[in-house]
Design goal:
single chain, about 220 residues, mainly beta, 16 strands
Length: about 220
């Protein structure tokens, strides 16, 4: 899995791929560095992007940052007829519901009981719609947890976003797989001279059909 990401710097759009902790220099003394780790025993890769301004003046504006902007090459059955009801095995994104506001613990048991339930979002190849997911209230595990199972025909990838505040994740079904874009919910900033910041990290673990994916992911988290 390549560490692919994208962003806009000033008026230019960048879509980059970097491995082995590569550092990419832009104009005006601004650089982008990727810290990457591979976990071959788990078919997983993790990366985080750093932005640095080594010049003596303010940078241009960074915006539209997708810390992960890659294609998951998943195979899926041919598009079904319109009106077809999805079933297990069809291409979908499985998310886990997160914390609900504390008021529901005493006001509504039905709502508080939804915590940590799975939410299935099926991808329709005919319409190629995009699924937009995000947390709520600036806490990373409120509303939705930042972990996703992107699956089709039994195989897939578990993806995770490493960030303590607002995040977003978009999934689009394409002809040759499922495109995933993740990052901070809002990014529009410049860097002063000498400033260096990071954005959200990304972890993607592949699994095969029939593999014990959930325990594989737990072992990965426990080990690393």
């Amino acid at each position: 899995m390549k560490q692919k990401f994208s962003f806009q710097y000033g008026e230019k759009e960048y879509s980059l791929s970097a491995e082995n902790n590569a550092k990419i220099t832009l104009e005006d003394g601004v650089s982008v560095e990727v810290e990457a780790k591979a976990y071959p025993a788990f078919d997983a890769v993790e990366w985080v992007v750093w932005f640095e301004n080594a010049s003596e003046k303010n940078s241009e504006i960074f915006s539209e940052i997708n810390d992960c902007d890659t294609l998951l090459p998943l195979q899926y059955p041919e598009a079904k007829r319109w009106g077809y009801m999805p079933k297990p095995g069809d291409a979908c994104v499985i998310a886990m519901k997160g914390k609900v506001p504390g008021i529901y613990y005493w006001k509504s048991d039905a709502i508080s009981a939804t915590e940590h339930q799975f939410a299935y979002e099926y991808l329709d190849k005919a319409s190629k719609k995009t699924i937009h997911l995000a947390n709520e209230c600036a806490r990373s595990s409120e509303g939705l947890m930042p972990f996703f199972d992107v699956t089709a025909s039994g195989e897939g990838c578990i993806a995770a976003i490493g960030w303590t505040g607002d995040w977003r994740a978009d999934f689009t079904k394409c002809d040759d797989g499922i495109a995933i874009k993740t990052g901070l919910k809002y990014t529009h900033f410049y860097l002063k001279p000498g400033e260096r910041i990071r954005t959200s990290s990304t972890l993607i673990m592949k699994y095969a059909s029939g593999e014990d994916k959930h325990n594989k992911f737990r072992r990965l988290m426990k080990a690393h």
